[in-house]
């Protein structure tokens, strides 16, 4: 079991679910939490300041000293940084991956040879869309449409993933590859290396990521997929998934889509 976990992205929906599960487990683990805004985190977790095993590191992800402090003596990292809208520009995941590698490289250089530890495990939020083992079970047109509908978030995800996977001497990565993420209550979850459903709730995703982080049987497993127990019925989620795909495709194919979208949104509000 890990002694100290670092969590990046605790104020997003996945990160909130991960942190909530870590705080409610009766386990002796220190939790280092990275956020850009501590006040936002405390708004979400008002009792966090009274948790003796929780330590908050707030600031810019490019602050190498801050990230080194976050990762000092950490044996497991849970990475939930990310975004969903198909807008060009953000590089949240890539920036986070570069910051981790830079910090770990600095820590390794500054540590005495006889005190050096094994590389930490990193539990990384990815997507089942990029699990090549599933492609013989998925229509190629469907894969292309999903990848186009979320083109920009996926470019950021893939950039960050490549950076981390290329540094096996510094960090050991396990990819968490859920299907569509759904805002609904937990229904239980399945963790698998060869099958996946249509949807996964944020609470189920958070608990599953903590399980993968804590359980020794997942060490050395390069990727797992997570599905909510209620997530195998694709028709159940059509009304949630299809509008997001349509908007994402329009953003990729229609010039000036977000300009028009945001203008209409402002006028409507």
Automatic annotation (TrEMBL):
Organism domain of life: Eukaryota
Coiled coil: none
Pfam families assigned: NAD_binding_10
NAD(P)-binding domain mapped to chain residues: 9-193
Transmembrane segments: none
Family, per entry: Belongs to the avfA family.
Protein's recorded name: NAD(P)-binding domain-containing protein
Source species taxonomy: Eukaryota, Fungi, Dikarya, Ascomycota, Pezizomycotina
């Amino acid at each position: 079991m890990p002694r100290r976990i670092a969590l990046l992205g605790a104020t997003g929906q996945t990160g909130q679910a991960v942190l909530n599960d870590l705080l409610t487990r009766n386990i002796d683990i220190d939790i280092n939490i990275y956020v850009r805004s501590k006040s936002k985190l405390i708004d979400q977790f008002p009792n966090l300041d009274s948790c003796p095993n929780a330590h908050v590191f707030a600031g810019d992800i490019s602050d190498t000293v801050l990230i080194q402090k976050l990762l000092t003596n950490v044996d497991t990292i849970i990475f939930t940084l990310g975004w969903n809208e198909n807008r060009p520009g953000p590089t949240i995941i890539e920036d986070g991956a570069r910051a981790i590698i830079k910090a770990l490289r600095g820590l390794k250089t500054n540590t005495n040879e006889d005190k050096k530890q094994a590389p930490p495990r990193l539990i990384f939020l990815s997507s089942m869309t990029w699990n090549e083992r599933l492609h013989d079970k998925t229509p190629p047109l469907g894969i292309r449409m999903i990848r186009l509908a979320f083109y920009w978030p996926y470019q950021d995800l893939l950039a960050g993933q490549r950076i981390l996977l290329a540094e096996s001497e510094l960090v050991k990565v396990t990819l968490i590859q859920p299907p569509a993420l759904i805002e609904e209550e937990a229904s239980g979850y399945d963790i698998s290396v060869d099958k996946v459903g249509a949807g996964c709730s944020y609470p189920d995703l958070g608990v599953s990521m903590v399980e993968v982080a804590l359980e020794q049987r997942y060490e050395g497993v390069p990727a797992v997929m997570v599905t909510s127990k209620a997530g195998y019925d694709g028709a159940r989620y059509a009304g949630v998934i299809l509008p997001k795909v349509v908007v994402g495709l329009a953003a990729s194919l229609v010039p000036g889509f977000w300009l028009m979208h945001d203008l209409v949104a402002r006028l409507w509000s």
